[in-house]
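One thing: can you check what follows?
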Amino acid sequence: MIVILGLLIIMSFLEKLFRCNCPVTSALDIVGDKWTLVIIKQMLLEHKKTFKDFSESDESIAPNILSARLKTLLKNGFITKGKLPNNKKTILYSLTEKGLSLTPVITELALWSHNNIKKSTIDILNEAEVDKSQLNQQIIDQYKEKYA
């Protein structure tokens, strides 16, 4: 009886979290707002890792929205938080494997934007043939090297 009640609670929670069973819609329910992928991109490509780093970015994320998005990313396992050994006040945010798994989404959006919205000055995007798999792995490896 307790197991059935627990399953019903979990199912109810998931129904509230996701609008439907479509995998694209479900993914957008988690990362489809205006700021979540921007924060992931900033961590992955711009090596931002503190609240101050994010707040001072060109994107100008409002502090209350930034705080809410970071909490959501933590809750959903995309990032973790820790502290500097010599500064217990500053919180450092790091991407998890789940967060790093969004690398192909970030690179595809960058390529799509470059080709359809606004040309970028980023050299790799101007190459005729981009090996996306190699590019994604290179980005992940660089992130892990810097924060391992």
